[in-house]
Amino acid sequence: MSNTSLLVAVALGGICGAAHAGPVLDRIRQTGKITLAHREASIPFSYLDANKRPIGYAMDMCAKVTEAIRKQLALSALTTEYLKVTEFNQVEMIEQNKADLECGATSNSAERREKVAFTIPYYITGTRFMVRADSKITDLRGFEGLTLVSTYKTPSLAAITRANNERLLRINIMQANDHVQAAEMIEKEQADGFAMDDVLLYGVLSTRPAPNKLKVVGKFLTLEPLSIVMSKKDPELKAMVDEEMRRLISSREAYAIYDRWFTKPIPPNDHALNIPMNYLLRDLWKYPTDNVPN
Fold first, then answer.
1. In a domain, 169, yes or no
2. Which residues are the signal sequence here (predicted)?
């Protein structure tokens, strides 16, 4: 056997070994399909277009990762299937093996790392506030004695609840089922503000019938690194995903994907969010890591 043939054989042997070693990779190799979990309305990360197809920044990142997995497993084709998830069940769908990658807007937290694995963050955001355009509120203290809504079971809800209790602000905190419902509560004056990751607030704002009647205010109350989610029981899968994320960043393909979704017009209204990459993400991508502080 020539040296070249030997190297190829060793490489293929390593790939096959990794595929058998990890339960998720083994299932993907055997079935020839991968299931991506997505959100319905987390603009611009993961949402449905006019034809009800999942699109977005996170979906594009997952598409790149999916192709890298196909190549690593030496598959001639890899069918992509989709599973719609919500803020309530996105982690559970990965835990229960109903999805292989979650491509939504899920933050990497210590609590969630007990259940699932995360790759290198593709975005860093934090909790801010959506209010009506004529509101004088500029920070959390401005909601003292008023009503503030957040989405059920999110880090933002936990953060404002904790701060409200610690600072004795007497804020009436309400829970919405999703971001759209929360925005509607502001518009209908059922609440004075909506606390959520600022980029999601801007995404919701871009879809409202009268976006000029709402605004996003305040400094970051929390910092939330958003990442692709996968099984904690398949370290070989995580290694593949991490490797592809590092390649996307070093080749600057990730920067181009970012620009497509954050600085240029996007569906459904062909409005640009005009959100340049913040310094937190720029700095993290200089030395890409999945180690995050929270």
1. yes
2. 1-21
pLDDT at 278 over 80: yes
Would residue 189 count as lying in a domain? yes
In the chain, the amino acid numbered 32 is: G
Average pLDDT in the chain: 91
Q: What is the pLDDT of residue 155?
A: 85
Q: Is the pTM of this model over 0.90?
A: no
What's the domain range around 187?
A: 127-222
**Which residue spans within 10-144 are E strands per DSSP?**
33-38, 41-42, 46-48, 54-55, 79-84, 101-102, 116-118, 123-125, 127-132
What pLDDT, on the 0 to 100 scale, is given for residue 21?
Answer: 54
Beta bridge partners of 82: 36
289: Cα separation from own chain's centroid: 16
Is 280 part of any domain?
Answer: yes
Question: Which CATH number fits the domain that encloses residue 52?
Answer: 3.40.190.10
Share of the chain above pLDDT 90, in %: 77
Domain count, the chain: 2
Q: 245 with 196, same domain?
A: no
Owner of token pair 């009800």: 52
Q: Is 104 exposed, middle or buried (0-12, 13-18, 19+ CB in 10 A)?
A: buried
Residue with tokens 């600085």: 263
Q: How does DSSP classify residue 29?
A: H
